[in-house]
Write a structure and sequence with these properties.
12% helix; 45 strands; seven-stranded antiparallel β-sheet; 11 helices
């Protein structure tokens, strides 16, 4: 009870001091976004999320894994002659600190009402992920997910709406926003102030792309102290520590490089451990802690960097009062050498300064059920007070179908219903539509994704998200669950490292490492064979024509299956984001002789286009319209072809248009068979 009283006293003291402090504005929030020490201080706000999650999910006992996460709004309302749909609204003082959206296309406008007045409006893709408010990385697109990190403060209230939803169709969104206590002074956002701060916004974008000593002026660099030591030799189930670092101060950078016969294996078998003031708060495998997952997967974010030469770096600020201890342990049976360096700064550590935590957990063989959510997997459960600031998810998917439909659910201070309810795992990590392409940005990245670059997401994937202005504060507890929702029935492996800051006494209740399991072969990455030689039955993927747009990949179709519509192996070759005039080639490896018709298994939907087919370069038949208004269906298309000879043949597909009612030019095929 005494410890809890002390924690609350620290929080209240910090809050009372900061309520009467500097006015919060766009300028101060931009400063906070680039101040690495800011997230170590006890926050004076709560963080919430508005999203388009399926409103049918009422409770764990009622439709909890509902997956219709598009175009769900608070309400619609009339504004003169215009109908608007409300994405979020809140009473101030507060600030929007992160927006994410995605859609098959963008036809509607967004309207931001601050303190009851229209602050800005325009095409939604220009403002979220476009350059209407800011350039990258504060506003950018990452693998079809559009992100905006430019803060939008408001003194009294905010309401975000959009129009033209019948024309727009699907729209997925997430908006993270802060709520400050009454009495906090906030200067509301205006485009006039944004224009006046254009140089500061540009400088913020520059700083967000820098790391470590790159950020500091020369005189500041000279004042920094560093610790470094080279460890060489055979580390076999050994524990090796850096001499203790005396405070008060903060570790600001750690750099590690491994040398082993199998470096990828070593990244999971060697763990990093850090203690501050006698309490161990960091334990994770090297690869997961530094944002790489299994192996050396080059990337660069605000808090992590993985270099081409195998050097791992992190830039978390880790304060302590008396001493810090850094150590490494090899849980594998191969010899590993470690070279490590770090930076340490002497600085005061006050009662409002929290301690850094990083915790890893893994579960193998999680059973999924195709087209259904099955459970919420706990990232972490924390007791005490602090702020949640990020995570790295590394998983193994044994099939080509999409694994990431699951929504994040974050419960703060004992909430019965999560104040953060997401729309999909990839949405949480800043991208969309299950991208098979790596990407990187200061606050979110996908450094590893396996399989074929254009054919799905089989194998290992690593995704990461880091929070600055959108950190999630808690005063009693935080529980973070990620829904397991896969398009295919299989067994998947999940491993996550979570990052948070806590006041003294805050601890993990669930989600910490099971070291006994880790030592018992849990550290060894699973072995597998890549299935992408023949992606879909009877087809070998060819290529897009030179200069053609879009991506050709494998899409799981189990979620669209019903008694009348069943796709072969619940999969199709899916061509998305193509445009009129583009063409792609499908290769049929084993064509029988003497056949005169091709039966093509195809998908029809409201966002599909019109295609013309060519058999070995010769035009066959008339264009086929793959639009269907009501639902996604499978249909067999009969194509008359020249009499075949035994061997290989090419079926070229050209996008030649789309139905007037269609909202896209997508195409999809699951099989090819022949008739006489």
């Amino acid at each position: 009870m005494k410890k809890l009283t002390l924690i609350l006293l620290i929080l209240l003291t910090s809050l009372s001091v900061r309520v009467g402090a500097q006015e919060i504005s766009l300028a101060t929030l931009l400063d906070e976004a680039t101040d690495r020490a800011a997230i170590t201080r006890t926050p004076n706000y709560r963080c919430y999320q508005a999203s388009s999650y399926d409103r049918g999910a009422k409770s764990p006992n009622e439709n909890w894994f509902a997956n219709n996460d598009a175009s769900n709004f608070i309400r619609s309302e009339r504004n003169g002659d215009r109908e608007e749909w409300v994405l979020m609204e809140a009473e101030g003082p507060g600030a929007i600190v992160r927006w994410w959206i995605t859609a098959p296309h963008y036809k509607n406008n967004i309207y931001a009402y601050i303190d009851g007045e229209l602050a800005f409006s325009g095409p939604i893709a220009d403002y979220i992920g476009g350059s209407a408010l800011a350039d990258a990385p504060l506003s950018e697109e990452s693998s079809r997910g559009r992100n905006l990190y430019l803060p939008i403060p408001y003194a009294k209230s905010v309401k975000i709406t959009c129009d033209q939803m019948p024309e727009q169709g699907n729209l997925y969104y997430q908006i993270n926003y802060r709520q400050y206590p009454e009495g906090v002074s906030v200067r509301s956002f205006s485009t006039t102030e944004l224009s006046a701060l254009k140089d500061k916004v540009a400088r913020t974008n520059q700083l967000l792309l820098l790391q470590g000593s790159e950020e500091a002026e020369p005189e500041a660099r000279a004042a920094r102290q560093g610790f470094r030591r080279y460890v060489s030799g055979d580390l076999i189930n050994g524990l090796y520590g850096v001499p203790r670092i005396l405070g008060p101060g903060a570790i600001t950078e750690i750099s590690v490089k491994l040398k082993a016969d199998d470096v990828a294996l070593a990244t999971r078998q060697v763990a990093i451990m850090i203690s501050f003031d006698g309490e161990e708060t960091v334990w994770a495998p090297i690869g997961d802690f530094f944002g790489s997952g299994v192996g050396v997967n080059p990337t660069r974010t605000r808090y992590t960097e993985v270099c081409e030469d195998g050097t791992f770096k992190c830039f978390w600020r880790m304060p302590f009062s008396e001493e810090a201890r850094l150590s490494f342990q090899n849980f594998g049976d191969q010899d590993v050498s470690i070279h490590y360096e770090g930076r340490f700064e002497k600085c005061p550590v006050g009662p409002e300064t929290m301690r850094f935590h990083a915790n890893w957990r893994q579960e193998r063989g999680i059973q999924t059920e195709g087209g259904k959510g099955v459970r919420d997997w706990n990232y972490t459960t924390i007791e005490g007070a602090g702020v949640y600031v990020g995570d790295v998810l590394s998983l193994f998917n044994p099939v080509t179908d999409w694994w990431g439909e699951g929504d994040e659910k974050i419960y703060v201070d004992g909430e019965e219903f999560p104040s953060h309810f997401g729309t999909g795992t990839e949405d949480y990590y800043g991208y969309a539509w299950g991208s098979s392409q790596p990407f990187k940005s200061p606050f979110h990245a996908q450094p590893r994704v396996e399989g074929h670059p254009n054919r799905g997401v089989f194998g290992r994937t690593t995704v990461e998200r880091f929070r600055v202005l959108d950190g999630v504060p808690f005063t009693k507890s935080l529980k973070f669950d990620m829904e397991i929702w896969h398009w295919k029935t299989c067994e998947a492996d999940y491993a996550v490292t979570t990052f948070w800051y806590g006041v003294p006494g805050a601890k993990i209740a669930e989600g910490g490492p099971d070291r006994e399991e880790f030592e018992d072969e849990a550290a060894v990455p699973v072995a597998y064979n890549n299935p992408f030689r023949t992606a879909v039955r009877d087809f070998e993927l060819g290529s897009l024509s030179e200069g053609a747009s879009g991506v050709v990949e494998i899409q799981g179709m189990g979620g669209f299956r019903d008694d009348a519509n069943r796709w072969v192996d619940d999969r199709q070759i899916f061509w998305r984001e193509g445009k009129v005039g583009d063409s792609a080639t499908l290769v049929l490896e084993s064509v029988p002789a003497g056949k005169k018709a091709l039966l093509l298994g195809a998908t029809l939907a409201r966002d599909y286009g019109i295609a013309q087919f060519y058999w070995n370069g010769e035009k066959i038949g008339e264009p086929v319209d793959f639009y269907n208004a009501d639902k996604v269906i499978r249909k067999t298309i009969r194509l008359e072809i020249p009499e075949t000879t035994e061997g290989k043949a090419e079926l070229k597909v050209e996008i030649v248009g789309k139905n007037d009612a269609s909202i896209g030019c997508f195409l999809g095929f699951d099989s090819a068979t022949f008739e006489d």
